[in-house]
Amino acid sequence: MSQVNRQTVKSTWQSLIGRLNTCLSNSERKALLDLFQSNSQATVVSFLNAHACNLALEQPDFYEAILNSDYLLRDGFGVELHLLLRRIQPGINLNGTDLIPEIIQRLSEVGAVSLFGAEPKNVKAAQDKLEQQGITVNVMDGYQSDEAYINHALTFRPKLIVLGMGMPKQEVLS
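Predicted structure:
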């Protein structure tokens, strides 16, 4: 990591922690998923893990993107530990690998799903797995222009777009 002064680290972390949406129980987690499912507006959900916190210090576009997400969810032990050290209740872990499949399942019931991922073979594997579950998915690899993703979204009008391109590309695109 490049040289970042202590005050910058502190203010960046405070901003991110202040934006976290936490669920203290499984019933709150279910209510959050219900909210995602019932929302008719475009909603950006991002995940805050230790890697994201470090990237936010070095990449202003990434920092702004996650800070401006509609929902910023805690992902992982690093952020949990940081919250506990600050005497803040971290809530339950809302990591993407657990939450995203559930969001896909719920939202596929009410509309199309698009998946934009990095490696073409991985996107195809995800598409095959989802289609085995009866979910129709439109896919694009993660090596397209931003305009190509926007045109795809305008053409297919999916209820859900999952970006699996890796941090920070997926957050800056959204």
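Summary: The mean pLDDT is 91.
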